[in-house]
Amino acid sequence: MTGIRASLESAQLLKQNADQIVDSVTAVDINALPDRSVTETLQRISGVTIDHFLSANDPDHPSAEGSNVSVRGLTQVESLLNGRDSFSSNSGRSLNFEDVPAELLAGVDVYKNPSAELIEGGIGGTVNLRTRLPFDSPGQVIGFSYGINEGDLSHKSKPSASFLYSNRWKTENWGEFGALIDVSYSELATRTDGIQLEPFTMRSDAAATAGSGLSTVYVPGGADWRALNFKRRRIGISGAFQWRPTKDLEFTSQFIRSRYDMSWLEHGAIFSDTSFDIDPATGTTFDYNSQGVFQRGSLSSIAWNNRLSKGGVGFDTDTRYQTQATVTTDFSNGFKYNLNDHVLLTGDVQFVKSTSKELDFTAFQMIYLPGMYLNTTGSGGMPLVSASPASYTSNPANYFWYAAMDHREEEVGMDRAFRLDLEYDFQDSSLFKYFKMGLRATNRTENNISTSYNWGVITASWASVGTPSTVASLNYYPANATLYSFSNFFRGNVKIPTPLYFPSSSLVENYASAYGILHPMGVSSTSAWSPVQFTPADLNDQGEKTKAAYGILYFGNDTALGIPFDGNVGLRVVRTDVDTNGVVQLLNLSGTGVPDAQKAIWNGGYLPINARTHYQDALPSLNLRLKLTDDLQWRIAASKAIARPSFTNMQSFVQLGYVLNADNSKVVQWNGLAGNPYLKPERATQYDTALEWYFSNTGMLYATTFYKDIHNYIAQETVPEIYNGQQFQITRPYNIGTGTLRGAEVGYNQFFDFLPSWMKGFGVQANFTYLDSNGGVNTATNPYTNATVIGVDLPMTGISKRSYNLVGMYEKGDWSARVAWNWRSRYLLTTSDVSTHLPTWSDNYGQLDTSVFYRIDKNMQVGLQMNNLNNAKVRTLMGPTSYGNGLVDSRLYNRGWFVADRRYEMVFRATF
């Protein structure tokens, strides 16, 4: 059997017969997971959600394929590859699922409440990616696929291809051999358009309130708009070799290598004044609704640099280019040996290496737009923006070269893991089935370099050069600037000033030569931009060793409780040893006006800091299944789990800082940022119960309820610390706070075989998840003082109260089709967005995907896969907003709207 029905039946058998609560997606057909990326596949499973952003802490840049997998709202997910721990260096502890080609996988399993034999590391759940083995098939298998995909905004066709060969051979004297090679290649090009509002600020001044009849109003700083062109290339190879010299002995080697190359180029017109600089244009007033929230009006700026602006509203026209290359290699060798009819010995050795390099470079020009009109009552609340005269944006003399910013990362992670397991079969017991015990040891190193975002000026009103306008205007330096028109922006549904001049893409894509181009235009000062250099403070050097032992007893009986039952009870014990090396980055006050005695103490430099710590955890687990009937079973599960802190949070690093008074003669605030190498893991005690009814080979109905009691939440806290006799207020992560998470999942699968004739091919898959959480440690940040806000109650990040999947299927004869709707409700993305310093939320989001395939013959099929057919909008919100002294605006304001390509891919598959 092949196709949708076969994959559904395979996944259902895995769930029904599993020793714990698990959900699976399988690919019975070669290279045929139902979605084109692992993240998109995972979101079809009940309780699993993904973000639609390149990263969770960057709400300004959505991702067409999604990212950041959460299980039951928690991102602390353990990622396994063929049952072994694996990771991507740029994701820290877990695999970046976007890095792994979906074409290499035979299936994906999500364990919700794991047993003691599974590797520890996730309080949300455990995701296991499975690749194929040659002994999975009875003989030779050849499979290949080819596809062309294109988006309706990017208008760029990109290929994808895969090839698999697997075979097994029996010999007279050496037993049986099997070999497999699976290669995949895919490219993707997408475009994302976004428009945003700057934060709304509470105003009571006469200019803002004029004509409103209100004493207090809320005015946005302005609007931003951006277009991002994203490209990625993913190359994967999976190889496997198996040898069974006798019926009792088997050896397996597996090799997986994935390379993920990503780049994106963004043109953004970003508001550059402050919100409080915005006033109504001369002779006009703003329109507000009955709550005093801005609706529309003509804007002018009273910014301190109005010598250049002349009342126009300041905008950066920036061109940003980011590249990232991640390579992950996973090589393992294992064996199985039946010592006798009762005892099985297994073991394996694994080596993982992952490297990642990232370069992020932005060049900024600036323009002050006159006659700017902002309307926040467009379709769905989207802003409409215009400038007058419209021709102003096409004149290069109205722009100048403003600044540049770069950021670099280089990460190398390696892990060596050793595992040995012994299984004893109780053949003569009426209650006990078998007992397993095992040992596992790992040695992992992380050497990560990540610089700060290095911003520097080229020219500005406060950084003048010797031109008539005192800035490096484009009519003096026109080279490397281009006019960009935002063609078909938001498919024509949003009005913005266009075209605008931007730094050219060739400039930002050639980082090595950018300094030689930009430096001659600008000022020569300490604040002028020059390429970022690695410093000791940028290095995160860590080592981690773990030693784990487990024992688990499997039991079962058909009569002892009056109904058949089985299950397992176990204990996993693990010790973690951490060794970190880093520095304290000291102050350098030599260029300030503070007393000489302080300059002598604080003259820069670094002090080494090294930290060693360890912790132990005992993780019991129980899984019980009661077989109420042949088709109906009830599961009960309880366990303890841990999620180790991220390597970023554990960095041995302290960066001391200061704030001077107005005349730079005295330090009025001593502060700093730091990591915490002494963090303990987050710990959870969790309970599940599930009722599962399997009424046909491809029909099931299940309901699961769960509860998690979580301790040791990791959050930032500011406490006093002493350095060189001086007290500093240092902000670093600590284990503080507790929380609970409870919820329920329901799911239903069925093909309607009772229908007549061709209608038998219809079927449906559906699941729904509800989550409720409280506690945790989530604080907001005052956007103007960076102080922790008191009185703002925020939920845990990443948790949508409701999410669901609804999939319509059809498979009959040579045709198969699938229409899939995925939806999740609003959730908190971050407690303090890097751009607004406000809590930022992702609003309700639903996406429609579909596919249709025609089987040419028993070996070949052709199809069309389509994503985002409903032209979904990713919408972000911001708030609450604190103004200090307990004054909080609790409203959530519109922040951003983003649309991405509708994607189409023609696919050809063949299996022999």
TrEMBL record:
InterPro entries: Beta-barrel_TonB (IPR000531), Beta-barrel_TonB_sf (IPR036942), Plug_dom (IPR012910), Plug_dom_sf (IPR037066), TonB-dep_rcpt-like (IPR039426), TonB_rcpt_bac (IPR010104). Residues 382-869 form the TonB-dependent receptor-like beta-barrel domain. It is found in: Cell outer membrane. Pfam families: Plug, TonB_dep_Rec_b-barrel. Keywords: Cell outer membrane, Membrane, Receptor, TonB box, Transmembrane, Transmembrane beta strand, Transport. Its main location: membrane. Residues 15-126 form the TonB-dependent receptor plug domain. It comes from the Bacteria. Gene3D superfamilies: TonB-dependent receptor, beta-barrel domain (2.40.170.20), TonB-dependent receptor, plug domain (2.170.130.10). It is a multi-pass membrane protein. Belongs to the TonB-dependent receptor family. This is TonB-dependent receptor. It comes from Dyella acidisoli. The lineage of its organism: Bacteria, Pseudomonadati, Pseudomonadota, Gammaproteobacteria, Lysobacterales. The gene is fhuA_2.
